[in-house]
Design a protein that fits this description.
Elements: H1 2-24, E1 28-33, E2 38-41, H2 43-49, H3 53-56, H4 67-82, E3 87-95, E4 101-112, E5 118-127, H5 129-147, E6 151-156, E7 161-164, H6 166-172, H7 176-179, H8 196-205, E8 209-216, E9 222-234, E10 237-246, H9 248-259, H10 261-278, H11 283-310, H12 318-349, E11 359-362, H13 363-380, E12 384-388, E13 395-398, H14 400-417, E14 422-430, E15 433-440, H15 462-468, H16 474-484, E16 488-492, E17 500-507
Parallel strand pairs: 12-14
Antiparallel strand pairs: 1-2, 1-5, 3-4, 4-5, 6-7, 6-10, 8-9, 9-10, 11-13, 14-15, 15-17, 16-17
Helix pairs in contact: 10-11, 11-12, 12-16, 14-16
Catalytic activity: ATP + protein L-histidine = ADP + protein N-phospho-L-histidine
Protein name: histidine kinase
InterPro entries: HATPase_C_sf, HATPase_dom, His_kinase_dom, HisK_dim/P_dom, HisK_dim/P_sf, PAC, PAS, PAS-assoc_C
């Protein structure tokens, strides 16, 4: 009796040790019957899947696997039962209580009795979700590193190149092995070697350094670069990360801008004279011309002022040169847009058609392109942008490019006069025709003046034009283009502060 009692005591102790180990294991453990019902789980397994342990009891293994994986899981479990597999280890996605994915490393085996009859499965699950995420992030950065257009170098504090991307091989003309045998000094023009030490120390001791210099290719040719260097740690080794951009084209553009300064100034003075002459037009056009004067003068002043400053380029910093050239370029584009509007209006005034080709236009395609062009621009202003497309596409006959231009003009107008709320574009079939609608929640229009907004040279409110800018040509040009495409356009508004709707109507192209 004493011996039996002692054996029972030891069995209980072993059971307690087993349960303690089972519950405190760092991996998830589950026992399941041969037909797949879960009969025992530890806390870690329940935690991995987001369940209470009691919820998992009597659940089927299939319920924690994704449908696309179940056939493989069932096949492996079946092979454990028939003895063709002793155990298996596999990476598997499991489904949490919330339906989310958790990556696990699964080890499965079969417990048999003394007669080798299968009793139950033991399933061990190691959560490897974080390792998977880390691997994806690492792969992402490796792809970014290798596919970057800029040269990327990791350089030791002594200047030895320890890593380089594909762009570096192409730019310098070296094979990878040869490139990694070089010192950063081997890539510098001799005239700049005297500042290498100072620049490396600056990059290592500050928040980084940005500078321009000359680098040398394997064939001996030099090319200008912009270098951005900062200190970093890789595998506990201090390195300099240098991102290097070939600025040959930028330098050519700067030289081109310098050569054209006098020509730009000459054109600017000529345009100013034209602007002065335009202001002598009749009273009906006076406010229109005042607006054009303002819109022309803004970019012209920028072009003249910054062009003059660029003549003193040797006294300017790199950032100042970039800012000045960018301002001249943007001002030139602004000026070109104004002149294009005036030219297009002059064509319309002479009753010349500016429509190039009338073709079938799928409105879903057109509206999708417009959405792509404006989504970020409108979002950055804090305005909601809605593009509502009907279930079935509609096709009209129009000049695709000119209709796209009209949509851009009207949306630009809506964006200019809408400070909060939303802009919505949509189209619909109405009484046998197709209506395109652009709605905004902007400043609205006095209903008594709606009939004037498409009239050339007429500004409804000069103070509004001065506040928001613009020549006021967008809607008159849009109306002329729509009419040349055999369509109609009209505006609707319930009054000041109530927003505006622009409605364009076209004939639908019937299926052949």
């Amino acid at each position: 009796m004493h011996s039996i009692h002692s054996i029972e005591k030891k069995i209980k102790e072993h059971e307690q040790h087993f349960l303690a180990s089972f519950e405190q294991a760092a991996v998830g453990i589950a026992h399941a019957t041969i037909d797949g019902r879960i009969i025992l789980v530890n806390q870690r397994f329940a935690y991995i899947l987001g369940y209470d342990p009691k919820e998992l009891i009597n659940m089927h293994i299939e319920e924690i696997n994704f449908q696309e994986d179940w056939k493989d899981v069932a096949n492996r479990l079946s092979r454990l039962v028939d003895g063709t597999l002793d155990r298996y280890v596999v990476e598997r996605q499991l489904k949490t209580k919330k339906g989310e994915v958790v990556w696990t490393n699964v080890t499965a085996s079969m417990v048999k009795d003394i007669d080798e009859v299968p009793q139950y499965y033991i399933l061990i699950f190691e959560d490897i979700t974080e390792q998977k995420k880390s691997a994806r992030v690492l792969k992402k950065y490796q792809l970014l590193f290798e596919n970057a257009r800029d040269i990327i170098l990791f350089v030791s504090t002594e200047g030895h190149i320890v890593e380089a991307n594909r762009a570096a091989e192409i730019a310098y003309g070296y094979e990878r092995e040869a490139l990694l045998s070089l010192n950063i000094r081997d890539l510098r023009a001799p005239s700049s070697l005297h500042v290498v030490e100072r620049q490396m120390k600056q990059a290592d001791s500050t928040n980084g350094i940005i500078f321009e210099t000359l680098h040398q290719r394997k064939d001996g040719m030099f090319f200008p670069v912009e270098v951005s260097s900062i200190s970093t740690m890789v595998d506990q080794q201090p390195l300099l990360l240098s991102i290097i951009r070939d600025i040959s084209e930028r330098k050519k553009q700067e030289e081109e801008i310098k050569r054209k300064n006098e020509k730009i100034l000459s054109y600017s003075r000529t345009l100013e004279k034209i602007n002065e002459q335009l202001t002598l037009a009749n009273q009906l056009k006076s406010e229109f011309l005042a607006n054009v004067s303002h819109e022309l003068r803004t970019p012209l002043n920028a072009i003249i002022g910054y062009a003059d400053l660029l003549q003193q380029a040797e006294e300017l910093t790199k950032n100042e040169r970039i800012i000045f050239t960018d301002t001249i370029f943007k001002s030139g584009l602004q000026l070109l847009r104004i002149l294009n509007d005036v030219f297009e209006l002059s064509m319309i005034e002479t009753e010349a058609s500016v429509i190039e080709e009338i073709v079938p236009v799928a409105l879903n395609d057109l509206f999708s392109e417009v959405e792509e062009a404006y989504r970020s621009k409108i979002k950055n202003k804090g305005i909601e942008f809605q593009v509502q497309l009907p279930p079935s596409d509609l096709i009209i006959m129009a000049d695709f490019m000119k209709l796209q231009e009209v949509l851009h003009r009207i949306i630009d107008n809506a964006l200019k006069f809408t400070e909060k709320g939303s802009i919505t574009i949509t189209y619909q079939k109405q009484k046998g025709k197709v209506e395109c609608l652009i709605k905004d929640t902007g400043i609205g229009i006095d209903s008594s003046k709606l009939h004037l907004i498409f009239e050339k040279f007429i500004q409804l409110d000069g103070s509004v034009s001065r506040k928001y800018g613009g020549t006021g040509l967008g809607l008159p040009i849009s109306k002329a283009l729509i009419e040349q495409m055999k369509g109609t356009i009209e505006a609707e508004s319930e009054g000041i502060g109530m927003g505006t709707t622009i409605r364009m109507t076209f004939q639908e192209k019937k299926a052949q």
